[in-house]
Structures are given as structure tokens and as C-alpha cells.
Amino acid sequence: MTITVAVADDQALVRIGFCGIIAATQGFTVVGEAANGAEAVVVARTARPDVVLMDVRMPVLDGIEATRQITASAESAGVRVIILTTFDLDEYVFAALRAGASGFLLKDTLPADLLTAIRVVAAGEALLAPSITRRLISEFARTPAGPLRAGVPGLGSVLGSGAASGTPAAAGIVRAGDITRLLTERECEVLCLVATGLSNAEIADRLCISPATAKTHVAHLLTKLDARDRVQLVIIAYQAGLASAA
Predict the structure, then answer these.
(1) CB atoms within 10 A of CB 135
(2) CA torsion angle 80 65 152 120 (round to 10)
(3) Which domains does the chain have, with CATH numbers?
(4) 182 vs 12, which has greater pLDDT?
């Protein structure tokens, strides 16, 4: 299956470079380019790529707001965003993840790693290494979480009418008990391991189950918690106090 990609960057040479790498690789195709955030939103809604590589600092509309508009729109609901950044974990990365991005890459990433990252995100995984996850969670713990890009209707039904428009996670009122009433004991174990940044294969090894079973558990978590991807599972787990940033 061909993975479709759009590239948004206001620097023409950077944009052309990424597009060239992607277009020259079997199994990938470039379906759009954008020189600013507003163009990126249009490309996402019209071309509906599997993945958008999104620069942060762009004119007209920055990458964070563009990401927010892409992930919040029904027209581009299936589009996943990878943030391109010059500095490892700068302040914009945290805002972009809250806006719905599925991960981030440094602009000096090697071509092979770029292609691997696109495959990972297109498959629904989060582009966050365990060490990066811990640092991200420390930052989320230090600052207000802000709204997530997913409601949690299952949790809303558990909490009842007191939930904020069916999005208790966004309101910051998700509790461990609310989660555990929705999930099986095994799913709770898997959620905690996802929150540490483990891959499906690593989770399978830790729990002595097959990778396919681990993948199924993660799929159930995404459905039950109405999470867009593993990034949001990580955030939900920490907001509910099911995992620790230590």
C-alpha cells in the first residue's frame, strides 16, 4: 500500500529536499506541498494525505494552528501530522502535540529515519521514543494540559451529565477510576506501558503476549478512549494518574 505524504515548510529548499526523498522511495508518494500553514490546511482537506510533515514557524498561519485545524476538521480527520523542528523539544513541540500532532522530527533527521517515521505514524503509532516520552510528560505535568484533540465519549457516559460536553479529558477531570471502569485489567496494563513509550513489540515482550495481541489491545484502547493515536493515550494515562513521569 502506498503512503501518501504532504510537506509544509516555508523554506523552498527544505521542502523540495523532503519531497525528493519521499517521491524517490517505493511505497511513498507526495500528494501536496505548502509554503505556509494556511496552504497546509487546504492540502490536508483536499488531498487527504496519510501524513503531513509540518514545519512550525511559517507565515500566514503557523504550524501549530494549522495542525489544530487539520486534526479538528472532519474533512481531514484521518490525516496525521509530524512536526518538523530545528531544536529537540522546543516549546512549540509541546503546543503542537496538544494540538493533535502524532509526533515530531528534527530537520536534520537522516533520510532512512524520515521514511521510518512516516511509516510509523501512518500506521497509527506515536513518534515518541521512551526517553522523549518521559520528558514530554514532565512538561505536561509542569504546565496546564490544555484541550486534547479527542473527546472521550466513553468516559463521558461513565461520568454522567457532570462531564464537560463529553470531553472530561479536555476538562482535566479524568480519574483513574473512570478509566478502569471502561477498560479490562489487561488493557490498563497496556495503557500504562504505552505511557512509558514502549512499542507494541516491547509491550508484547513485557507481558509475554504476541505482538499481534498487543496491537489489538492498543486498538481497543484507541477505540474505548476515543483517542486519535498513541500520543493521546500517553496524555490520558498521565492525566488520569495511571502512570508516573518518574
Answers:
(1) 16
(2) 20
(3) 3-127 (3.40.50.2300), 133-239 (1.10.10.10)
(4) 12
